[in-house]
Every structure is written in structure tokens, then in C-alpha cells.
Amino acid sequence: VDKGSISLQQQRKSLPVYRLRKRLLEEIRRNSTLVIIGETGSGKTTQIPQLLLPSGIAGTSGCIGITQPRRVAAVSVARRVAQEQGVETGKLVGYCVRFEDVTSSQTRIKYLTDGMMVREAMTDEILSDYSVVILDEAHERSVQTDVLLGVVRRAQNLRKLKNLLPLKLLVMSATMDVDKFTKYFQAPAVYLEGRQHPVKIYHAVKTQEDYAFSALVTAFQIHRDNPANEDILVFLTGQEEIEAAVVSARQVAKQLDGQGYPPLKVFPLYSALPTHQQLEAFKPSPPGMRKLVLSTNVAETSVTIGGIRHVIDTGVVKARTHHPTTGLDVLRVEKVSKAQAWQRTGRAGREAAGKCYRIYTKEDFERMMEMPVPEIQRCSLAGVALQLLAIGVDITTFDFMDKPPKEAVDVAVTCLEKLGAVKGSPPQLTTLGRTMSLFPLDPRFTKVILASVEHHCLEEALTVVALLSGESVFTDPPAKRQQAYVARSRFASPEGDHVTLLNVFRAYTNMKQKKVWCHENFLHHRNLEYATEVRQQLAALAERANLEKASCGTNTEQLRKALLEGLYDNLAELQRDQTYVTVSSKQPVAIHPSSTLHSSKPPLILFTEVVATGRCYLRGLSVIESSWLNEKGLNIGKCD
Ligand code: ADP
Ligand code: MG
Question: How do 571-574 and 604-613 pair as beta strands?
Fold first, then answer.
């Protein structure tokens, strides 16, 4: 069947959710909380809200809120549903993600990230805008979904106590491990029959050194041997890796085009990609042309891409993990669990029989964990603790579905105490803590912004925090590495990467031909655009919090002092043998090659993040004077 010829409405009606709608609505009507399990692509996310609206279950004015762990999913699904309803996004159907609110007073179906709904609960603990809350992708167990499981249950109970309109809760998941959910909510589960075609699995014969390279080689073998209407989906880990793979794949595709191969169109898919580009990957490819989508984990269960017959699973995912010794969250490329590997495999069999190529051996697969560890048990909890306190809940007694380790909770509370956000036992928010909770940032970065007032550099702090909230603004074209390096050195500051970022942003803001200028200087135009938007949002929050506007101009030492106020735990010290160790835990670390401080050896540096690739690399550095620590009453332990 021609992919384009099936009309939107016909397609909707063929989905399992639509076919089972009578029974489903009955169950939803009957239970205040219901767990819904269904294969990816069965229509849970897009159809259930559309069925609820005319059914009366959502009342006549209340909103149906559907949470997603990732912004890319919230945006693309909202657009799809608006299209199905024949309305403009932002009217009846809208979305709300961090730094972007596309809703209006007419909005009744609202897709939002789980983090945004936690934010809403902070100012409205009974979630009074909603008649139905749908916690989607619950199997992913993101920190914010786990927080919401408790927060929404609490809102349900509060409404009951206050005799208000009841809040309906639907928990949706793609996997079959439902016991936890049904026990926690004491709610029944319904299973949607999935439609799944057989998928033939191929494993690598031996472990691959470079999984991204092997994945591309495999993609082009598939391209050579299969009809052009069979699209390919590759799972990679993040923006940098995907962008690099896109460049290589496009080059190869162009060469092959001349050799009689069918045309191949390559699409990236990851959260930081601008909306219109994300949506490109979902468009059906025209007859005779093949689509190759290089995606992060988002395509595992959150979004469905049509036409896929071949899945290439690299077996890895980028996950946020709490580093046991440094106490920091690190983004690390990790092996997926078996459950995730099966989900990825399933993506090849949505519309017809398919094939899945695993870039790892059968033995590697056998060694994988059954299920991923919930994020709440592996991340730092300072931000979560602050959010819960703002809702009026003490994290030390909060009824999590899976309790985070006690040490992690203690560390979080201590961190907030040190930042001046809480005091007492049980912990209470201070005035500063209340202000901090207004910012959708890690508390340490919010502290940088708040502290920048006394260092007279709010403007600069907003800029740097905005830039740190997004993906890198520097491009790294493999073929032009030297030129990029030269271009970058024009902005480089001996004070470190934060002041370098500031230099980039200041120059960018003054440019008229921004796009051309960015291209010439090897800068990411869209990441700078994104940072500009984020900065505007942060500036608006700063204004609401009555923070005094000031700029330190060329006196950027002030900015580094403000950074130190929030990131005082992120210090590393030069040793006699010219290596670095972290001040807090004496962990051996090295300066990341991308840093402007890579070839200098300042005695004391502040870092933004740790990247663990074999050894620990520090990224986003600033030079710090040890005298500043004394001013703050901080002491660094001398080690030998
Ligand atoms: P589930 O939540 O159960 O995984 P969805 O509601 O996300 O399922 O998707 C149902 C179907 O709708 C998919 O199989 C796909 O055919 C279609 N669909 C969803 N999103 C899009 C989109 N952005 N573009 C095109 N088709 C889509
Ligand atoms: Mg879904």
C-alpha cells in the first residue's frame, strides 16, 4: 500500500486503541486510577486523550494533561494530535516544555514534560487545571515521572478531602512489568492487544570497537541489498554522535547515488533539534526513496516513525548517573537493558515483518540487565528535594514507588543547606530556597544566578547559565578540525570556558548576519538561538524575583566568583605530578580536550560537568583563585 494514500482518519481508526475504545472508556470511567499497558504504536499517547475529550470523562472545561519524559516527544505528539483534530497547535491541543509554552485558554489536550507538571504542582498542589492526568511512558521511570506518581496521587487525595472535582489518573506504559504500578496505586490494569509482526534478529559475531561506525556500515549494507521503500532506524546516544554520523552518512549516500543506488535521505532525531527539523524524520519518504533515521532513545517507545523495516541497535544509551565518589551526576554512555533491547527490536515490526541488527554479540546481550535501574535511584536529588519542599512535601518521608538510597537523600538535603535553600529538621525552605524553586534549573545553577547579584554580574550569569542549559555552541566538523580550532581560539579566554562562552555570546548578539557569521566561526547557529531564548526566559524569572540587573563588563572575575558560589563542590586541584584531583573526593580527573584550559595548568579550577569515558574528564572550566575560597570561609584540603 502506498504510504501516502491512507488518510489520517482511516489510519487512526485502524489503531488498537481505537478498536478497543468502548471497553477502554468503560474501564477509565469506572476507576479513578487505571494502568494501561500497550505495545508501542498502539495509539495510547495520541488517541486516548482524543477519545476522552468527547466522552465527557474530562468534564466540560478541565484539561487533559499527558506527561512525557522528553521534550521531543511532547512536541511531536502534540503536533500530530493537533493535525488529527484539524486544529492549529496551541489552541485545543497544545504543549508545554521547559522554556516553551504553546498553549492557550482554549487548550483541553495538553502534552507536557513530566518536569513541567512537577513545576505546575509547585504553585498548585491539587493540579486544579486538570480533570485527567495521564502519566505516559511510566516504564521509563524518569526522576520526574517518579516524583509525579506520588504528587498526583497526593493531589487526588487532597481533592477528595476537600470535596472538589475528582482527578482521574491514567498511568501508561509500554512494558509488561505492571505489578509495581498496580500495587502502588491499588489500581487495575488493562492490556491493549498489540500488533507486532515478526522481527528477525542478527547479532554481531564479535564485539565492535566503534559501534557508531559499525552501525553506519550495517546501514549501507542494508541500503545496498533491500528495496528502497524499507526505511532504516539507528539508535545512537546523543547530539554530537548523531550529527557526526549524519555528516558521514550523507557523504556516502551522495557518492552511492551516482552508482545507481536508490536515493537515501538521512534524518537526525534528538531533543535539542528545533521542532520543524524533528518533524522531518516523521514524514513518510516518497516512493523510490529510502529514509535513514539516526535517533536517540526517544524512538525506543516515545514516538513512532512510520516505514521502518530495519532497526540497528548499538546497544547503548546516554544515561544520567550519580557518580558514587565525586557525588556528581555524569552523563555516561551505558549498555541498555534487555527490556530496552527488545523495545528497539520491536520498532522494526510495526507495519510488516522486519529485521533488527544488534551491533553486539549474543553473549553481550545475555549479560545485559533485565530492566534499567530507575533514575531516582541513580541521580542526585537536590533538585527533586527542592521541588518537593516547594510543593509542601518532605523528601525524607515522601512515598516514592522505589525509594532512593538514604545517603542520596541526605546528600541532597546537605547540598540545599549549603546553598542556603533549606534549614532545620525536618528541612524547611528558606526565603532564598523559595526563590530558587522558581527557576527550572539545577539548584546549584540557580544559586549562581542569585549570587551573581552581589557580584554585580546578573547579565553575565544569565548568559552563561543559559548557554550551559543547552547543547554545545561549538561545531566540530571532523574534516575541518584545524580551522574550527583556529576560529574558536578567537574567543578563547585564559580565564576558562565560561568566559569564552560569554565572549561568543557577546559577539553573536552584536552580529547582524548571525547565520553566516556562525558558519564562518564554526558555531552552532541554532544552539545559540536556543540559548538566546532560554536566556530571555531566565531574565523574565530574574525580574519576577526582583533580582538587581547589573553587568560586570570586562571585569569577568566577578562572573567566576558567582560561579563558585553555586559550584563550590566542583573544584579540582593541580598536584605536584601535574595531574588533577577533585577537591571534595580526591578523585583523579583530567581536563577535557575541548576546554580552553586544556594546555594550561592552573592550580585550581572549577568544572561544570564530568564526562566519564574510561577516565573522568572535566568539561566547562574556570580558573579560580584560592584566596576567593578563604573569603567564603571555604577551605581546600591539601593533598600530597
Ligand atoms: P503509543 O503511544 O501507543 O506508542 P502513539 O499514539 O504514539 O502510540 O502512535 C500511534 C500511531 O500513530 C503510530 O503507530 C503512528 O502510525 C501514528 N503516529 C504517531 N505520531 C505520529 C507522527 N508524529 N507522525 C506520523 N504518524 C504518527
Ligand atoms: Mg506513546
Answer: antiparallel
CA dist., res. 371 & res. 490, Å (int): 47
Q: Using the structure block, give the residue that is written with the C-alpha cell 566577578.
A: 558
Query: Using CA atoms, how far apart are residues 498 and 562, in angstroms rounded to an integer?
Result: 11
Determine the distance separating the centroid of ligand 2 and the alpha carbon of 153, expressed in angstroms. 21
Q: What are the beta bridge partners of residue 268?
A: 294
Contact residues of ligand 1, CB 6 A cut-off = 15, 38, 40-47, 76, 80, 282, 304, 306
Q: Which residues contact 344 (CB under 8 A, 6 or more apart)?
A: 235, 300, 311, 313, 336, 356
Q: Quick: pLDDT tens for 371-430.
A: 888 888 888 889 999 999 999 899 989 989 999 989 889 989 999 999 999 999 889 999
Q: Which residues contact 269 (CB under 8 A, 6 or more apart)?
A: 72, 242, 278, 281, 293, 294, 295, 296, 298, 299, 305
> ipTM > 0.90?
yes
Please write the tens of the pLDDT for every residue from 160-201. 999 999 999 999 998 757 888 899 989 999 998 777 899 999
Contact 393, 421 (CB under 8 A): no
- Of the bound ligands, which one is closest to the alpha carbon of residue 81? 1
Reference 135, options 116, 108, 161; nearest CA is 116
Taking alpha carbons only, the member of 181, 159, 138, 188 closest to residue 28 is 188
What is the distance in A from the centroid of ligand 1 to the CA of 422?
44
Cα of 603 vs centre of ligand 2, distance in Å, is 50
CA of 11 to the centre of ligand 1 (A): 10
E strand or H helix at 80 = helix 71-85
Q: Tell me how far apart the alpha carbons of residues 168 and 390 are, in angstroms, rounded to a whole number.
A: 23
Mean pLDDT of the region 543-557: 96
Distance CA 246, CA 239 (A): 10
Helix (H) or strand (E) holding 545: none
pTM of the shown model? 0.84
Peptide bond before 426: cis, by omega within 30 degrees of 0? yes
Q: Which residues neighbour 478 within 8 Å (Cβ) at sequence distance 6 or greater? A: 244, 247
State which of 12, 44, 46 you would mutate to test the pocket of ligand 1, scoring each by most atoms of that ligand within 8 A of its C-beta.
Answer: 46
Q: How far apart are CA 375 and CA 371, in angstroms?
A: 12
Output the pLDDT for position 633.
64
Does residue 457 contact residue 551 with C-beta atoms inside 8 Å?
yes
Give the residue ranges of DSSP H helices in 86-174.
Answer: 114-123, 143-161
Q: What CA dihedral angle connects 431, 435, 441 and 444, to 10 degrees?
A: -40
Beta bridge partner(s), residue 311? 233, 356
Mean pLDDT, all residues of the chain: 91
189 contacts 151 by C-beta, under 8 angstroms: no
Range from 292-296, 423-427, 608-612 that averages highest in pLDDT:
292-296
In the block, cell 532504516 appears at: 232
Q: What is the pLDDT of residue 637?
A: 42
Backbone angles phi, psi at 454, to 5 degrees: -70, -20
Distance between CA 367 and CA 39 in Å, rounded? 25
